[in-house]
Amino acid sequence: MKKQVVIDYRTDKQAVSALTELGYETIPTLPVPALYDEVKGHADMQLHIVNGKAVCAPEVYEYYKEKLDIEVTCGSLPIGEKYPCDIAYNTCTVGRFAVCKMANTAPEILSEHIDAGHEIIDAKQGYAKCSICVVNETSAITADEGMYNLLKKRGLNVLKIDPCDIELYGMNGFIGGASGLLEDDLLAFNGDIRTHRNRDSITGFCKNAGVKIVCLNTGKLADIGTIIRIP
């Protein structure tokens, strides 16, 4: 069975080709009309992987049920137009921790994490998946001060970077949204990590964690809503 990743349907051809060459089948997202244009195709706003399952927003459930090679559950919360109603599926898993804004997270996601024995970290910042780049089960990168503090308090290795050098259609993007852990030891970036001012810190941090970096395309890092690997 071919390995799958879900990516924004607007992801450039160079990145798609790179993923294909690495052996992954790319599943493009669907646009969600409720979301504003910059993020309407972001995978991390539409589905969350937990316990080997995908919990999806009802708007895209039938699509992912057909496309993905894992069990797909339909979440009960639709994707809202404005924050915080747009973050129901934007949970980030780092090892045994699930980071999210609990009050606005799909209950199916919370239930799956509880069943898995994970500790749920209730964050003020609702865009957890966007803002956290997962390096391995004990390591992460973020530019968000609140996320940094929450993860450090749990004993995780966290690299704090500057909130810059990541594009999002003319806006400032997030490091989590510009990346995705493809394998336990392989982290992909959408763009060239050398264009980020904290490149040396990022590459050194990943090397110390035993994780290799692959850049899927040239140019600046761009937030595409996370490269979501299907287990």
From TrEMBL:
DUF6873 domain span: 6-228
Record-linked Pfam families: DUF6873 (PF21778)
Superkingdom in the source lineage: Bacteria
InterPro entries the record matches: DUF6873 (IPR049238)
Protein name, entry field: DUF6873 domain-containing protein
